[in-house]
Amino acid sequence: MSTTLYIGNLSFYTTEEQIHELFGRCGDIKRIIMGLDKVRKTPCGFCFVEYYTRTDAEMAMRYVNGTRLDDRIIRTDWDAGFVEGRQYGRGKSGGQVRDEYRTDFDEGRMGYGKIVSSKIKTRESI
């Protein structure tokens, strides 16, 4: 009966205040943990929102999942509960794995995926 939600597909520019404003409409928030690039310590497109009650978390799952924030459709999912260390991206470069392999340009997530960006930079330096 977790009261913690995983929030994904956030823009790298989305702030904790924006998350609080949107998710606070569903109930009292205990804490927000922003996902960080483990190398640069900058936002990397996800967060955890912990509510005081399961009812408030259920409201957020029902009403906030699939809404638009910073021009992105965000998704929410149940999380077993935040444990220290999970706030860091798990990709090889420090961010999220899915951002390393993204081949399309996504301004909200700082351009192309890490692997594609490195290939572009390699070609430009030749």
From TrEMBL:
Species this chain originates from: Dreissena polymorpha (Zebra mussel)
Descriptive protein name: Nuclear cap-binding protein subunit 2
Compartments where found: Nucleus
Lineage: Eukaryota, Metazoa, Spiralia, Lophotrochozoa, Mollusca
Protein's GO biological process: mRNA cis splicing, via spliceosome; mRNA transport; regulatory ncRNA-mediated gene silencing; RNA catabolic process
InterPro entries registered for this protein in UniProt: NCBP2, NCBP2_RRM, Nucleotide-bd_a/b_plait_sf, RBD_domain_sf, RRM_dom
Domain RRM, residue spans: 3-81
GO MF assignments: RNA cap binding
GO cellular component, one term: nucleus
CDD domains: RRM_NCBP2
Xref: PANTHER family: 20 KD NUCLEAR CAP BINDING PROTEIN (PTHR18847), NUCLEAR CAP-BINDING PROTEIN SUBUNIT 2 (PTHR18847:SF0)
Keyword Transport: yes
Superkingdom in the source lineage: Eukaryota
Record keywords: mRNA processing, mRNA splicing, mRNA transport, Nucleus, RNA-binding, RNA-mediated gene silencing, Transport
UniProt keyword RNA-binding, yes or no: yes
Similarity-based family: Belongs to the RRM NCBP2 family.
Coiled-coil stretches noted in the UniProt entry, renumbered to this chain: none
Chief site of localization: nucleus
